[in-house]
Amino acid sequence: MFSYIAGIDEAGRGPVIGPLVVCCAFCNRDDEKLLRKFASKDSKQLTAAQREEAYAKLRSFCTFRWVEISAADLNKLMKKMSLNDIEAKVMADLAKKLDENSDLMIDMPDRYSWTFRRRMEKFGIKRFEAEHKADENYPIVAAASICAKIIRDHKIDEIRAATCDFGSGYPSDQKTIAALKDKARLEMLRPFIRERWKTLDNLKQRKLFEGEE
Length: 213
Fold this sequence. Notes:
Strand content: 15-25%
Radius of gyration: 18 Å
CATH topology of the largest domain: Nucleotidyltransferase, domain 5
Number of strands: 5
Order of helices and strands: EEHHEHHEHEHHHHH
Number of helices: 10
CATH superfamily of the largest domain: Ribonuclease H-like superfamily/Ribonuclease H
């Protein structure tokens, strides 16, 4: 049994505004009891205040590393790579920084495990486990989820302060849609918009942009 446990998760895969944040959390296996106490729920099940409180506790025995990919960088990267490849590469880069005695669990972004494994191996990582909803089933992945969500939320707060109130940045948010339909706010937000997003959830949003032009 390895001495350390590690988990990787992301926040902000689906929004049309703001960055994608991928986080890796790891700790000594001896701290699993504490981990279960403070990361029993993934970030989506917690309020912002609860996430901050949990993160403060987790940082006393967990180490966190993350990568923030801005909307502008995503727009550039997606000219030559798929979103899933971008995410797998970042996850692989984070995994390479782990102690070799670490068990790694990843919240799987791909639909099929064999597809995700092939991506990770392409980027140099062979020893890991991955599951859908791992953030709900493994506290170490929940810890990564909490950190990723906090980092993204802070960035969204910064973007709002510099531009306008656009809500959460998700296509399902009517406040976001209203901001994107307003020409003045759209111009302010343009540097932070994922114009090359190709997920099914954002197809309607892409048509909205076409209508504005």
